[in-house]
Amino acid sequence: MNLVSSKIMNIQNLLDRVSTIKFKYDKLLERDALDFNIFQALQIGHRETTLHSRFLSFLLNPHAEHLQNDTFLRLFLKELEIQDFNSSDAIVITENYFFHENGEKGYIDIIVKEKGNSPRMIIIENKIWAEDQHRQLDRYYEFGLKFTNDKDKLHLFYLTLTGYESSEKSAQLADYKLCSYESDIKNWINNCIKEVALIPSLRESLSQYSQLIDHLTNKPTNMDYINEIKEALKQDDNYQFIGDIETSILELKIELQVKFWETLINAFEDHDFSIYKYGMADDDVLTSVKKWHYQSRNNRDYGVEVYLTDIEDMQIYLCFTIIDSIGSYITLYDENDNDVIEKGKSKIESILRQLNYEFYSEGGYPVWKENILSVLNFKNPSKKEYALLQEEEMERLTNNFVEEVISFKNQLKRKIN
Questions:
Q1: What is the phi/psi pair of residue 117, to 5°?
Q2: pTM
Q3: 302 Cβ contact partners less than 8 Å away, ≥ 6 residues apart
Q4: Tens of pLDDT along 239-278?
Q5: CB-based burial of residue 188 (10 Å sphere; 0-12 exposed, 13-18 middle, 19+ buried)?
Q6: Sign of the CA dihedral 22, 27, 30, 33?
Q7: I need a surface site. Which of 38, 214, 259, 338 has the fewest CB within 10 A?
């Protein structure tokens, strides 16, 4: 047996052992219902604004009904290494609407600021599914400087599931810091849980939210399970294969995502949809996917747009963009291909409310709340995503989704006409 064959056999033995460990813990999970989560049961776990921004603001607010004063805020400041911030009388604002001096406007997800003139201020742009907007972080940064009058007093955070950078169109001038649910928020929430260990209602609410973060980032919640796998990796020199396995997993993730986009595009084309591919390097899906996985600065913003119908002098497009999952939202274009969602937003939202599909406003766009694609996670795939590597499974999913889009398109056209 040559060296390569020997390594492959050893890796197979390791994978067999991991499979046995996983089977054991899956049975424990099933028996004890350890994966029950109230946020998921209510189908609100994906809601950036109505759940995540509001829940985080609730915890950060020293005057909120949790009655812990500034305990949670102080832990947050410690986690993000923010010093000299007067937390005791801090003011917390959620979804702050503002006009920029050049006529641009927007909503800031979370603001935490001191009282008084020239206060220290924290601005958080919470970005789980929504797409970056033009000059979004630049506008928030300029807004904050108006109040603080000192860039050293302003802390602008770009909060995402896994801590990736914003797109260049959002931040060209802004001095912002990265923040992730996977690490920063998870650590903060767990520290908050320790503080309220003797208060069951708060402890369990925070624990459920911590579990939700694990679900959104596809992280196992049972550390006994993880530790048992870790011990398996340490035995029989198995650690020597870790680098090979990590590289193979990355290549598998890339292959999965490339197959998804290619199959989805083909399914739309088979049904005679007009498609525009944006952000894909020279129409090259593979190059775009690789850049996305390697977290290149200018790779966060790509996907496809499909034309649905017209409303007055505007064209309605359904857009799909890759964040960690696939975000689906409506936008409008004029005859010159300019985005005119602000012009027709009230009209299109009025029509959408009459359909059998739920949309909510996020980042200025109507976002499709739940569909077949919204449950996928390409950053940290689980078994349901990897199952799509089988060609028949991928085709089944994409064809089912295109049929759903066709039904939506037909309902939309009937309402408009």
A1: -80, 150
A2: 0.62
A3: 277, 278, 279, 280, 288, 292, 321, 322
A4: 676 777 788 888 989 999 999 999 999 999 999 999 998 8
A5: buried
A6: negative
A7: 338
Q: Are 172 and 138 in contact (CB under 8 A)?
A: yes
**Residue of 156, 134, 160, 136 lying closest to 144 (CA atoms):** 156
CA torsion 20→25→28→34, rounded to 10°? -160
Q: Are 212 and 40 in contact (CB under 8 A)?
A: yes
| 370-394 tens-digit pLDDT | 788 877 888 778 888 999 999 999 9
Residue 124: C-alpha distances to residues 298, 407, 414 (Å): 21, 37, 40
Instruction: Tell me which long-range contacts 147-153 makes (C-beta under 8 A, separation of at least 24).
Output: 147/113, 147/118, 147/119, 147/121, 148/118, 148/119, 148/120, 148/121, 149/118, 150/118, 151/175, 153/118, 153/119, 153/120, 153/121
Report the alpha-carbon distance of residue 254 to residue 256 in Å, rounded. Answer: 5
Sheet with strand 303-311: strands edge to edge = 275-278, 303-311, 314-322, 326-333, 365-368, 359-362
Of 31-40, 118-127, 189-198, 337-346, the poorest mean pLDDT is in: 31-40
Residues 277-306 have pLDDT tens digits of 887 766 688 888 888 877 655 555 688 999
Q: What are the residues whose beta carbons fall under 8 Å from the beta carbon of 129, sequence distance 6 or more?
A: 46, 48, 323, 324, 325, 327, 362, 367, 374
- For 43, the token pair is 């189908």
Query: Per-residue pLDDT averaged across 143-147, rounded?
Result: 88
196 token code pair: 């309220």
Q: How far is CA 173 from the centre of its chain?
A: 24
Q: Do residues 284 and 302 make contact, with C-beta atoms less than 8 angstroms apart?
A: no
Nearest to 193 by CA among 208, 179, 215: 208
For 284, what's the count of Cα atoms within 13 Å in the CB-facing half-sphere?
A: 9
Q: Which stretch, 142-156, 184-198, 321-335, has highest mean pLDDT?
A: 184-198
Cβ atoms 96, 122 nearer than 8 A: no
- Nearest 5°: phi and psi at 200? -55, -45
How far, in Å, CA of 279 to CA of 288, rounded? Answer: 8
Residues 331/343, Cβ–Cβ less than 8 Å: no
- In which band, very low, low, confident or very high, does the pLDDT at 356 lie, cut at 50, 70 and 90? confident
Question: With 70 as the cut, is the pLDDT of residue 15 above it?
Answer: no
